[in-house]
Amino acid sequence: MSLEQKLDRLLQHHQDLSDALASHTMADPADFARLSKEYSDLNEVAQAIRHLRKHQHDLKEAEALANDPTLESDLRDLAYQESQSLKETILSLEQQIQLLLLPKDADDDRSAILEIRAGTGGEEAGLFAADLLRMYQRYAALKGWRFELLSTADSGLGAIREASASISGKGVFARLKFESGVHRVQRVPQTEASGRIHTSAATVAVLPEVEDVDIQIDEKDLQIDVYRASGAGGQHVNTTDSAVRITHIPTGVVVTQQDERSQHKNKAKAMKILRARLYEAERLRQDSERAASRKNQVGSGDRSERIRTYNFPQGRVSDHRINLTLYKIEQVLEGEALDELLDALISHDQAEKLAQAVG
In the predicted model, is pLDDT for residue 339 greater than 60? Predict the structure, then answer.
């Protein structure tokens, strides 16, 4: 089947879905919801195909006029110019449609769990981890996403050992999934008297947020311990056994939560993180089985992979996966220029997938 035939079939299927939804003959609400989602998912590509068809029709007419010997030369020239412009538009639409037809990551529309941990570099690594947390929080605010801090472990003076957050909104995971990996910073710490540049690092993990229906966890596989939280002296966290540690026995994954006064709330937050980690582990297991296709993608999601360097003396941010450098370090850390990096990463990933699809 040719690409043109596939596009015609897709358009017809989109129209059939529209007719079915308009008739309201389905008795099963689940079927109606499923077809509504399928119709919505096809809207963008169907609209692009309709635009393509219109411009292809206009191109035929323009070329016919440009080659009509009975017309005056000025009119033929105008028609020729119009045909050249239409060819460029058609090429752009064809590329757009090819990208829209690429297989989608099933988790792209999900919200995300963000985890940040200070790595090598001592206190400076903790300060950098705090910088990254603020960067993602500000970026989420610019996007209109909901940013909920789930837990933080401070190490003093504005530094953090680790933190986790829930970022809610449509397409959050699609935008942030390439942020997983090691982020490195090069700068002169405020405590460095000699002005020597230090290098430190923090690890970022972005996990798709999942619900109970997405991943089943057997209660028998969980070991749940409660204990007194280790907050500052005199605070409420020391007065009750409200902290929760959940161990998933089959995998050894451990999640602790102590930021809330309520043991129930801490357990709920811990379970949210546990589900996300177990789901992501299964995603990576499946991806490793497709290793041949993964080698061309911009990032494996491996937390040990060094992906980006933030160099303060030179004012630059360099993403090592796509060899992109921006001299906008302050704007990136404010969240304002982060889209420039993310757009380039997404475009690179799409180009690689497209090359594989046509190859």
Answer: yes
